[in-house]
Amino acid sequence: MSESQEFVRSATVHWDGDVARGRGSIATESGKVTADYSYGTRFSGDPGTNPEELLAASHAACFTMALSAVLTRAGSPPTSIDTQAAVHLRRTATGFEIPSIELTTAALVPGIAEESFAQLATQAKEICPLSVALRAVPITLKATLKTA
Predict the structure, then answer these.
(1) How far is residue 66's CA from residue 64's CA, in Å, rounded to a whole number?
(2) 89 phi, psi to nearest 5 deg
(3) Which helix (H) or strand (E) holds 37?
(4) Alpha-helix runs per DSSP H in 3-146
(5) Judging by beta carbons within 10 Å of its beta carbon (0-12, 13-18, 19+), is residue 128 exposed, middle or buried?
(6) d(CA 130, CA 135)
(7) Which residues have C-beta within 8 Å of that of residue 28, sequence separation ≥ 6?
(8) Is the pTM of this model over 0.90?
(9) pLDDT tens digits for range 72-117
(10) 142 pairs with which residues across the strands?
(11) Is 63 exposed, middle or buried (0-12, 13-18, 19+ CB in 10 A)?
(12) Percentage of residues in the chain with pLDDT exceeding 90?
């Protein structure tokens, strides 16, 4: 990929009704992700998705690919990586905010020392495009090196 190459990815949303009783649908450009959402799926645990869950999925996927790339470039390609992202949503006096995101990852990486793995995981968090885009939010990382 050349340095000047840019990719644009998109998703669309349709919403019907007021915020409390309305419903929406989300579709990605590829058609691989489609989901319903509503006030209830965001705040009451109703079936469906919500923006924070989608952000968590995107961030976990982005970080995992960045970690795989960093490890591979360092000469220690991973056998497997499992990552969870937890996006916190908090009500404030003026609305809502995302005060923090927690990344938790565990990777099977043959022949790498724990200290090197921890450093490379931190590097991956710093270069992951979604981590970069979300710098206004504190992002923590717990990285565990799995043994076979």
Answers:
(1) 5
(2) -120, 130
(3) strand 34-38
(4) 39-43, 51-73, 114-127, 129-133
(5) buried
(6) 9
(7) 9, 10, 11, 34
(8) yes
(9) 999 999 999 999 999 999 999 999 999 999 999 999 999 999 999 9
(10) 104
(11) buried
(12) 95
Closest C-alpha to 120, from 58, 61, 60, 78:
78
Q: What does the chain come to in residues?
A: 148
DSSP 10: -
Residue type, 125: K
Residue listed under structure tokens 């939010």: 137
Q: Which fold has domain 50-146?
A: GMP Synthetase; Chain A, domain 3 (3.30.300)
Q: End-to-end alpha-carbon separation of the chain, Å?
A: 34
